[in-house]
Design a protein that fits this description.
about 0% strand
């Protein structure tokens, strides 16, 4: 009887050791799974954050390009106005010569017809 009791106690110890080993294996598998899911989730969140930052940077660059384009357009308009005013000034200074040339050409044409 003592031998049977000893065998039962030994078997219980073996079962406990096996259960403890299985428990440890399951716990390690669960930890590994959780770590992998956390890495995946962190990667997804990081990818989303990168996409947001990328869109924001592109928006800032586009706005900066638009500002530069507006500045360039304004400079061209100012330059055109400056050139136009210089042209008007030149025409104003030379209007008498232009009118005289036109009158001379008319006189020459009239003489040719006579």
């Amino acid at each position: 009887m003592h031998e049977e009791v000893a065998d039962v106690v030994l078997e219980r110890g073996n079962v406990r050791a096996r259960l403890h080993h299985v428990h440890d294996d399951l716990l390690e598998a669960l930890r590994s799974y959780v770590r992998e899911r956390v890495r995946q989730h962190a990667g997804e969140v990081l990818a989303q954050k990168r996409a947001i930052v990328h869109r924001w940077v592109l928006g800032v660059e586009r706005r900066a390009d638009a500002v530069l384009l507006d500045d360039h357009k304004q400079m061209r308009e100012n330059h055109a106005l400056h050139l136009e005013s210089r042209l008007v000034q030149c025409i104003g200074e030379n209007i008498e010569h232009v009118l005289q040339d036109t009158q001379i050409k008319r006189l020459v044409k009239r003489r040719r017809h006579l």
